[in-house]
């Protein structure tokens, strides 16, 4: 779920991401000069918190402002999610993702279309087997979400998939460093006769028009997934009874919630879905990152204790009215604390696929898949797959927690694509 850590200007290896300019937003828009003074104010609890917009002390170009905004946001404890804008769940800061245009001032995404019919694609992508269409999903009165429908060639009806992002302000491709896992899923499944709708997450596309102190998990995830499902059902070539939601990481954890709300999904696939509460993962991933190079230093022990204190506040939603902690305010963390993904999954009759990479250091076989398996493993409509060597993004190689930076380059493994496609075909035939 999370990939690397930026804790008071230090990354998981103890080297400053700011000084080295390794943060993607900084690397994408590094200016020559500029000053910044982050503005702090007390929250309701009296604890300091960072203002949503840092105080920029000079007139500057948009590029320089992007750089300095990213610089300010990395001075607070943040945990990287599944997008390259590196944030725990949602972030109010405007940052850039390599290869993706930043949001415009009106809250829409000025983003060039991803060309998945050419360029550097996985070998299992059959460029002649699908077409792509740009769509727009309504999110708020001020903002819509850019989307791409990858549709198999032909005239007959096909099943459809909606991809649900992991944590962080993800674009529709799930871009993180060199990886685009959601694009890989889309072209892989479309090459096998399955339509896929993927879209820019609200916290990526609508950063200018949402209030991080006020939104809930439904505001920034569930409602947009349901909108995407409805839009996919409207497509003439897609069988409206054969819609499957494929959620990755936090998106997988929320897939049972979506299925419960929708009531008509043919199935849900949970890819590297956390069974544990998010605050627990923040602590465990911080510990892993700090211990990766050996014994903890005194400074690293203090940092780990600070992370535990933060996690406890997130777990209990001990957050002031105007505070934003780890990307969300009190309503967000309260709504997440009140949701139990495993319990919700047991209460629905929707077929479920659980997929987990054995090299995943963010969501693990031992701590997360084990709970899913213990609770759901006896159900005949639940299938479980594990993949040796695959990381959190289902790529064969080291993930970001292992490297201490960006994940190793690669594509989503064809074995996952094949298993997912076979399972989808099975559940729609049985429906």
Q: Count of DSSP helices? A: 14
**CATH class designation:** Alpha Beta
Biggest sheet strand order reads 8-9-11-10-12-13-14-15
Q: Termini, distance in Å?
A: 31 Å
CATH topology group: Rossmann fold
Second-tier CATH architecture: 3-Layer(aba) Sandwich
Could you tell me the mean pLDDT?
79
- Order of H and E elements: EEHHEEEEHEEEEHEHHEHEHHHHEHEHH
- Shape type: globular
Short description:
With 431 residues, the protein is an alpha/beta fold.
Walk me through the structure:
The strands form four sheets. The protein has an eight-stranded mixed β-sheet with strand order 8-9-11-10-12-13-14-15, with helices on both faces. It has 14 helices and 15 strands. The longest helix is centred in the C-terminal third of the chain and has 19 residues, at 298-316. 34% of the residues lie in helices and 17% in strands. Residues 1-115 have low confidence and may be disordered. It has a single domain, classed as 3-Layer(aba) Sandwich (Rossmann fold). It is an alpha/beta fold.
Question: Which secondary structure elements does this structure contain, and how are they paired or packed?
Answer:
Elements (H helix, E strand, L loop, with lengths): L4 E3 L2 E2 L5 H4 L3 H5 L7 E2 L2 E3 L5 E3 L4 E2 L5 H12 L4 E2 L50 E9 L5 E9 L5 E7 L16 H10 L4 E5 L2 H4 L11 H17 L4 E11 L1 H13 L4 E5 L6 H14 L6 H19 L13 H8 L3 H7 L4 E6 L7 H12 L5 E6 L12 H4 L10 H17 L1
Parallel strand pairs: 10-11, 10-12, 12-13, 13-14, 14-15
Antiparallel strand pairs: 1-2, 1-7, 3-6, 4-5, 8-9, 9-11
Helix pairs in contact: 6-7, 7-11, 8-9
């Amino acid at each position: 779920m999370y990939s690397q850590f930026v804790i008071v200007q230090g990354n998981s290896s103890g080297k400053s991401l700011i000084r080295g300019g390794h943060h993607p937003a900084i690397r994408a828009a590094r200016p020559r000069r500029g000053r910044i003074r982050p503005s702090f104010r007390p929250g309701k609890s009296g604890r300091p918190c960072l203002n949503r917009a840092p105080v920029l002390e000079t007139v500057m170009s948009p590029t320089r402002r992007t750089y300095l905004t990213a610089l300010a946001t990395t001075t607070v404890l943040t945990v990287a999610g599944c997008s390259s804008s590196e944030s725990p769940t949602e972030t109010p800061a405007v940052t850039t993702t390599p290869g993706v245009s930043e949001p415009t001032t009106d809250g829409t995404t000025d983003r060039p279309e991803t060309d998945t019919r050419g360029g550097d694609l996985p070998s299992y992508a059959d460029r002649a087997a699908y077409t792509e269409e740009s769509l727009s999903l309504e999110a708020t009165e001020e903002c819509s979400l850019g989307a791409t429908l990858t549709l198999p060639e032909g005239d007959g009806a096909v099943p459809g998939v909606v991809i649900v992002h992991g944590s962080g302000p993800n674009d529709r491709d799930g871009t993180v460093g060199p990886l685009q896992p959601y694009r890989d899923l889309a072209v892989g499944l479309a090459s096998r006769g399955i339509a896929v709708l993927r879209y820019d997450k609200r916290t990526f596309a609508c950063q200018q028009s949402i209030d991080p102190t006020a939104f809930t998990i439904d505001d920034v995830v569930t409602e947009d997934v349901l909108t995407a499902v409805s839009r996919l059902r409207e497509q003439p070539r897609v069988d409206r009874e054969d819609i499957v939601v494929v959620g990755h990481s936090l998106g997988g954890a929320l897939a049972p919630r979506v299925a419960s709300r929708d009531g008509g999904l043919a199935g849900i696939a949970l890819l590297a879905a956390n069974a544990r509460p998010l605050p627990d993962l923040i602590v465990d991933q911080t510990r892993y990152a700090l211990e990766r190079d050996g014994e903890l230093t005194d400074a690293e022990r203090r940092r780990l204790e600070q992370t535990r204190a933060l996690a406890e506040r997130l777990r209990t939603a001990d957050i002031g009215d105007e505070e934003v902690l780890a990307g969300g305010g009190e309503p967000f963390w309260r709504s997440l604390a009140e949701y139990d993904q495993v319990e919700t999954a047991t209460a629905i009759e929707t077929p479920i696929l659980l997929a987990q990479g054995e090299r995943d250091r963010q969501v693990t076989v031992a701590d997360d898949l084990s709970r899913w398996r213990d609770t759901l493993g006896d159900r005949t409509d639940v299938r479980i797959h594990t993949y040796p060597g695959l990381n959190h993004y289902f790529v064969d190689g080291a993930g970001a927690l292992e490297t201490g930076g960006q994940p190793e380059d690669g594509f989503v493994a064809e074995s996952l694509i094949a298993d997912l496609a076979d399972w989808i075909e099975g559940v729609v035939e049985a429906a």
